[in-house]
Records
---
Amino acid sequence: MVGGGQLARMTHEAGIPLGIRFKLLSASPQESAAQVVRDVVVGDHRDLDTLRRFAQGCDVITFDHEHVPTEHLRALEAEGVPVRPGPDALVHAQDKGVMRAALDRIGIASPRHRIVTDPADVTRFAAEGATGGDGYPVVLKTVRGGYDGKGVWVVRDEAGAAEPFRAGVPVLAEEKVDFARELAASVVRSPHGQAVAYPVVESVQVDGVCDTVIAPAPDLSGERAAEAQRMALTIARELGVTGHLAVELFETRDGRLLVNELAMRPHNSGHWTQDGAVTSQFANHLRAVLDLPLGAPGARAPWTVMVNVLGGDYPDMYSAYLHCMARDPQLKIHMYGKDVKPGRKVGHVTTYGDDLSEVLDRARHAAGYLRGTITE
């Protein structure tokens, strides 16, 4: 697995019961997965020679992020290295412009969009969709490299549109969608085309970062849930995805589903599956990239809630275990081995049960207590 973050750490954990030998390319020995994986190569995923050396002896290469240069992946494939997902699929998660063009081609709805060249072009884009006023605000995104709110701007006039262009990379303009909530549809697809779909979840964002995931999404009709799953399965098939695909969606106030982002790897919106699904996203991602039969994706309980644990001003989170575990013996805590820094994702908690209000309260209390924002 290329990438040493928490996604690699949890994927490695899922492979242990299957006896899967796991090799890791990590930026440093201190990264989350590098702390627990035995076979670690420290190197730069942007260097082709490093990738070639890392690939020696590997049956298959997969990823915990999308940042390996596409041309390097094509070179590995040309040399006979199985790369899953392959570069022709992964580029759609790497480049937002390529992704939007592909969704248009296969008929999957997404926000109105266009590559823009300068602030004046942003103003023209805004006006193209205006039904009144000047069409602002507009969302601007760098086509590559953004995540967790980075590389994304909400601009309200032409002067405010200048900053995204300073990086010297293409910029994608999108309409600012008036959405009711954010959903995520996760599917897993194997090389021979077997696919499974997880229950559609609601994802609650705070300051551009995923805070809470509720599985299944409350008050989502069976028809709408099936529509979201069909969209995700269609994208996985048409783009040739192997492994886990997370499709982040807007549910608009007028009842539409629009694709926001794609991720071709285990994803934060799927962490609930570790404790809440028959087969976790991590286990099914491994099964897919190894072309093993996929596991059942169904939920184990009526409701599962995952809340991310962010770092705060309270560095000793582990002393909070006593309170959290005693208060809620069914609570599941997953920490990533990271140094605690304010706002940094350092872990998550999951709870499950029959009553959504109670399950939400338990998860949010535990995450808050671990962070230090709740003290009793």
Note: Residues 179-371 form a domain with the D-amino Acid Aminotransferase; Chain A, domain 1 fold (CATH 3.30.470.20).
---
Amino acid sequence: MGAQVGGAEIIAADAFQIYRGMDIGTAKPSATERTEVPHHLVDVAEPDGAAFTVDDWLRAAEASIASIRARGGLPVVVGGTHLYAKALLDGLFEGPPPDPALRAQLAAMDPAARRAELERIDPAAAARIHPNDSRRTVRALEVFRQTGASLSFHQQQWDRGRARRDVLLVTLEWPVEALNRRINARVRAMMDQGLLEEARGLWRAGRLGPQAREALGYKQLMEHFEGRAALDDAVERIKIETRRFAKNQRTWIRRLRASVSGLALSGEMDPLEAAAAIVRAISDPVLSQGHNSPDCGI
């Protein structure tokens, strides 16, 4: 990856673009795009390796931001993993370390009983976590059993902690129906581009570890590979789960806007016009809340 003195550089805030080999399903930037504009935190981990945590990403992102700024460049954080963005903006809840024995015990629970316990001890987390998301459910229960307080309670530390003021939050807004049509078209395009073959190759090679196998697209296709779903049904599940994920993203965006200077643009806006609006906003003292112009974009 080449560096551009004084230019913009992208930091990927995507929990699955970090993994090598997971290209089509994560809509990873192409090799040409990465040559034209430097990208950070893409292809930095193996999908069957150790879990890549939010803390791992935050440390690497902060190092990338410092390096880009030292070159006189503009860090632009781009991606759909809003937990990463929230950690970057408000700090990270330092949870208890993983307890392998407790995790194994929780993972062995009946899924319905595990879900019922989460709804009882942490209704806020249950509202955020999909019933089929066993990894995040186990982590929420693990935190509660280790500390006696819910994960949602601990994460309130974000709202009481530091808040960055050197950031301009830029969001794209689409009408829901238009966004859903784009999601459906995107899934079809990914299948045409070879997502089925890419996912099958990773699955056959045993390269999808516990975290990577939760990625949208790969998770549903593995159900097909393992004989638990017909291909057409698996593809339809990708569309449904992606639309649900987009709804969750909209909720995250509303939360982020509550604490960060922002610029909301229409997703249907001409890209050049959108870029010009962002450039103007970066130097707008009103958007920067009376501070120096933001020198990091999300």
Note: DSSP finds 14 helices and six strands in the chain.
---
Amino acid sequence: MKSFGFTLAEVLITLSIIGIVAALTIPQKIGNYVEKRTVVQLKSAYSLVSQAFLSAMAENGEVNNWCEVPITDWNTCSDKIFQTIVPYIKNVALCTRSDDNRCFSPTYKTATDVEWRVTPRTQLLTDSGFSVYIQAYAGDKYPQNWCKATVGEASSNGYSNFYNDCALIYIDINGPARPNVVGRDLFVFKLFKDGLRPGGSPMDTIWTESFENQCLAKNPMNNSGIWCTAWVLINENMDYLHCDDLSWDGKKTCKEK
């Protein structure tokens, strides 16, 4: 009786084909999983931090009342905002030294592969694993406009009205862990006197904050990639990593024609 089976050559060929298919598909599946997980993590961090600010405002008034105006030291104002919300975020570790890297990585890569540093101010790391850093800033030229705008107001292309938000809120969804790339694990929110707005929203039209210029990096600056936050939260994808023809009034995914 004859026995049937595969020759060694046939087995090797089959294993080679399986290996090639795996090499082509597994990285893509892993990438898709990581991006979907990032969307979930960013949503969770946004919800927690936004609720902390709303709770703080309920007891301390709107954010424009938290710092002494006119502001002469933006670092002091940043610390004041930080100290006001910390009691409303449970189980946090504080990083207060410039060499304390428990909260943020000392350096990040931008969308244009440039090294970018987080300013070493007071930071926190939550028990959920994400970190928060606050930077109050209105520019030396227009401090009178600090913290006058609300979440629902669009940014202005006139620089005399540009610095009208209260602060930038940086969130790293996995603390100092890799990849440490803006737009992948580091994102920015704009703080207004009545709450948070994800950076790079359709209302952020000035070139330094727009999705097209500073997420797709069509007119990049030193922190390009950070302004992808609104896109991730609203469209629930990170397709800006894979194609550059997305827009708020056009394609929302790379698969669209």
Note: The longest strand covers residues 186-192.
---
Amino acid sequence: MLQTGARAPDFRLPTLDGSKFALKDALARGPVLVGFVKSDCRTCQVAFPYLQRLWTTYADRPWSMVFVAQDRPEAIQRQVDAHGLTMPIAIEHGPYPVSESYDPDATPTYFWIEPDGTISKVALAFIKKDLNEFAALAAGQSNAETPDIAPDDDGQPPFKPG
């Protein structure tokens, strides 16, 4: 699995909405959160609402987000519909060259990639602390206080393994 300090491999994948996501183009706008998910991953299903909250809270900031679904489009579409997801989702359904190049240990796995292509944070599973740290990164240089994307008292555990 790629670690902090590694150079993120560039990739281009089709998205669920019919467009294309290119990491190089996204990095030109700012940092990028790349996540690897599967529709049948129970931990991913717990994380989806938090990731959606992250996306909608900071959509106006200079960063990007994409989740690489290791699924058939119809399988991940069921999760999109069930959770009301609007965040960008790329499809990688065999072969898996992007997944192989990042080599995530589990799903979900997240990589925060700086505009120069360097990975500055890696996180696995569902950990509220990590989600809140991604929120702070997405907030960028804002003077506004960063709200918790994953509050302690919301009924979900602070950690769920992937």
Note: The beta strands are 12-14, 20-22, 32-37, 64-69, 89-91, 109-113, 119-124, 126-127, 159-160.
